[in-house]
C-alpha cells in the first residue's frame, strides 16, 4: 500500500497543479487500509428509516469486531475509534466511528478481540430506490484456514420507501432490515457434528430466510487489482428457515475458519460475518481425584481418585441455568429507566470455574460478573430515548479448561421500548408479537451435537486466571451518550 502511495507521489509531484493536501489524504487512506489488514474478526449491520416523512433518511447501526491490539492493546470499554470508510451505495461515503462495547482477553493475540458499535445516518437522494450499502477492505487474517489474507466485506440491501405489512397489527409500515448478532469467534469441536443457532429478528415480523453468503458478499471479486474467490468451510450448511448452522468437522484442520450468513426478510437483507474455531475436546481428572478438574491425557495424570471413578474422561460442558432468559425469548427494557437482567451458568465440573462471555452489546450497557463453578452476569442499562429499538444479546460459557457451552452461543431478543407510564398509546400495543425469531425449533430439537462437548483453545492460557472469585465489568461502561 505504501509502495503505491510512493509511486503516486512521484506522479503528482510532476504536476504543478497537484495539491499537497491530495498527497496527505491518500497517505491517510493508505494508513487506514494498512491498519485494518489482518485485524478484522466480525461484522453485522442493520438500518431503519428515520421517520414516516423522512423515510429516505436511513439510520445505520454497525457492529464490528477487531483484534484487540489493532490500535491499543489496553483500549478501555467506552473508548471510540475510527474504523475506515462506509459506502452508502450511491457513490457517497462516511467514516465509521465505533465505541468499544465488549472484549475477550487472551494471551493469544489472534484470539483476543474487541467489539464496537457505531451509528451513521444518510439521506438518499431518491425516495424510492434500492441501494447496497457496504464496507469492503483488506484483509482477513492470514492464519485462517479458508480465504487467508483475502479482502473482507459486509453489506446490506437498503430499500428506501419500501412498505410491508406489520404482522402485529396488519398495518402497512416502512420496511426495516433484519437484525442479528453473533460471537465474533464461535467455538466448535473437532471431529464432530456441530450445531449452533444464528439468531435474528425482523422488526415487522416478516418471515426470515437464511443462506450462506456469496463470494461477492464476503469480499470476492476484483479488489485493488486482484481478483479473489471466497469460500465457506467445507461441509458448512445452514437451514434456510430456522437459521441452524450444521458443520461436520471430521477430518478438518484445527484452527480458525471464516464464514458469512445472509439474513433476508423477503424485501431487504443483511449479513453477519464471523469466525469459527475448530479445536479438540480436553479430558479432565474425575472430581473425586486430588487434582480433580485438571486437564489429563491418561489416567496416570490423575491422583488419589475414588476406587470406581473414571480417572481421566472427557470434560462435561458448562450449561446455562435460571434465571437466564430462555434462548430466543424476548425481554423488554424501558427507555430512561434503570433496567437489568441476569445470565447464569454452571460448570460441568464442580472444581472448575466458569465464565460468561458476552458478544457485542449496546453502547452504555454494563455487564457485572461473579465467577465460580456457578457464575452470574448482570446486564444493567439505562437506555436513552434515542436507543429505543431492537437488539440481539448473545453470550457463551467457557470454563477454566477452555470447555465451551455445547451449542457454541446463546441468544435472546432485547426490546427497548418507551416507558408505558409516559404514553397511554403504548399500553395498548403488543410490541413483542411483531417479531419473527428463529430459535424455537433449535431449542426443542435434540441433536447429536448436544451430546458432544464444544471446546476451544480461545483462552486456554489466560483462562486459568479466571478461577479467582472476582467481579469485573465485561462490557461497556455507561457513557455520556
Shape: globular
Please count the helical segments: 5
Q: What is the helix fraction of residues, given as a range? A: under 10%
- Which residues form runs of ≥5 with pLDDT under 50? 1-36, 424-435, 439-481
Distance between the termini: 36 Å
Biggest sheet: strands, sense, closure?
A: 9 strands, mixed
Number of strands: 34
Q: Which radius of gyration do the C-alpha atoms yield?
A: 23 Å
Mean pLDDT: 84
Q: Structural class, from secondary structure content?
A: mainly beta
Quote the beta fraction: 35-45%
Structure description:
It is a single chain. This protein has about 475 residues and is mostly beta strands. About 10% of the residues lie in helices and about 40% in strands. The protein has helices spanning about 1-15, 20-35, 215-220, 425, 440-445; strands at about 40-50, 55-65, 80-85, 95-105, 115-125, 130-140, 150-160, 165, 170-175, 180, 185-190, 195, 200, 210, 220-225, 225-230, 235-240, 245-250, 255-265, 270-280, 285, 295, 310-315, 320, 330-335, 340-345, 355-360, 365-370, 375-380, 390-400, 405, 410-415, 455, 470-475. α1 packs antiparallel against α2. Residues about 1-35, about 425-435 and about 440-480 have low confidence and may be disordered.
Key features?
single chain, 9-stranded mixed β-sheet, disordered C terminus, mainly beta, disordered N terminus, globular, 41% strand, 481 residues
Can you give me a brief rundown of this structure?
By secondary structure, the protein is mainly β.
Amino acid at each position: 500500500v505504501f509502495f503505491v502511495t510512493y509511486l503516486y507521489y512521484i506522479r503528482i509531484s510532476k504536476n504543478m497543479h497537484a495539491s499537497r493536501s491530495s498527497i496527505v489524504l491518500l497517505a491517510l487512506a493508505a494508513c487506514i487500509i494498512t491498519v485494518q489488514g489482518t485485524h478484522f474478526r466480525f461484522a453485522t449491520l442493520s438500518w431503519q428509516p428515520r421517520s414516516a416523512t423522512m423515510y429516505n433518511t436511513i439510520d445505520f447501526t454497525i457492529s464490528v469486531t477487531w483484534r484487540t491490539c489493532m490500535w491499543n492493546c489496553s483500549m478501555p470499554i467506552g473508548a471510540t475509534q475510527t474504523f475506515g470508510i462506509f459506502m452508502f451505495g450511491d457513490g457517497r461515503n462516511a467514516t465509521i466511528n465505533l465505541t468499544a462495547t465488549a472484549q475477550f482477553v487472551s494471551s493469544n493475540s489472534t484470539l483476543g478481540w474487541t467489539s464496537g458499535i457505531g451509528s451513521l445516518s444518510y439521506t438518499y437522494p431518491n425516495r424510492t430506490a434500492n441501494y447496497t450499502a457496504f464496507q469492503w477492505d483488506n484483509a482477513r487474517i492470514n492464519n485462517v484456514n479458508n480465504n487467508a489474507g483475502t479482502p473482507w466485506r459486509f453489506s446490506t440491501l437498503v430499500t428506501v420507501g419500501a412498505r410491508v405489512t406489520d404482522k402485529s397489527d396488519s398495518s402497512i409500515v416502512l420496511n426495516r432490515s433484519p437484525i442479528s448478532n453473533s460471537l465474533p469467534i464461535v467455538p466448535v469441536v473437532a471431529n464432530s457434528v456441530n450445531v449452533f443457532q444464528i439468531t435474528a429478528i425482523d422488526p415487522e415480523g416478516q418471515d426470515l430466510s437464511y443462506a450462506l453468503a456469496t463470494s461477492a458478499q464476503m469480499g470476492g471479486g476484483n479488489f485493488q487489482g486482484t481478483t479473489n474467490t471466497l469460500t465457506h468451510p467445507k461441509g458448512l450448511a445452514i437451514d434456510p428457515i430456522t437459521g441452524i448452522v450444521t458443520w461436520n468437522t471430521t477430518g478438518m484442520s484445527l484452527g480458525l475458519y471464516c464464514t458469512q450468513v445472509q439474513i433476508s426478510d423477503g424485501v431487504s437483507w443483511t449479513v453477519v460475518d464471523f469466525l469459527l474455531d475448530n479445536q479438540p475436546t480436553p479430558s479432565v481428572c474425575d472430581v473425586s481425584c486430588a487434582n480433580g478438574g485438571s486437564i489429563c491425557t491418561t489416567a496416570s495424570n490423575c491422583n488419589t481418585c475414588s476406587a470406581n471413578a473414571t480417572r481421566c474422561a472427557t470434560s462435561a460442558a458448562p450449561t446455562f441455568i435460571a434465571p437466564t432468559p430462555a434462548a430466543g425469548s424476548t425481554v423488554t427494557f424501558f427507555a430512561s429507566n434503570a433496567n437489568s437482567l441476569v445470565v447464569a451458568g454452571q460448570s460441568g465440573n464442580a472444581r472448575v470455574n466458569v465464565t460468561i462471555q458476552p458478544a457485542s452489546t449496546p453502547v452504555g450497557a454494563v455487564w457485572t460478573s461473579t465467577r465460580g463453578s456457578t457464575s452470574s452476569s448482570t446486564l444493567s442499562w439505562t437506555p436513552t430515548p434515542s436507543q429505543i429499538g431492537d437488539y440481539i444479546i448473545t453470550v457463551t460459557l467457557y470454563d477454566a479448561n477452555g470447555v465451551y457451552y455445547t451449542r457454541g452461543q446463546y441468544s435472546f431478543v432485547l426490546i427497548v421500548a418507551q416507558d408505558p407510564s409516559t404514553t397511554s398509546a403504548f399500553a395498548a400495543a403488543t410490541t413483542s408479537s411483531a417479531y419473527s425469531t428463529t430459535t424455537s425449533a433449535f431449542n426443542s430439537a435434540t441433536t447429536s451435537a448436544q451430546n458432544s462437548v464444544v471446546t476451544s483453545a480461545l483462552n486456554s492460557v489466560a483462562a486459568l486466571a479466571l478461577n479467582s472469585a472476582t467481579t469485573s465489568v465485561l462490557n461497556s461502561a455507561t457513557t455520556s451518550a
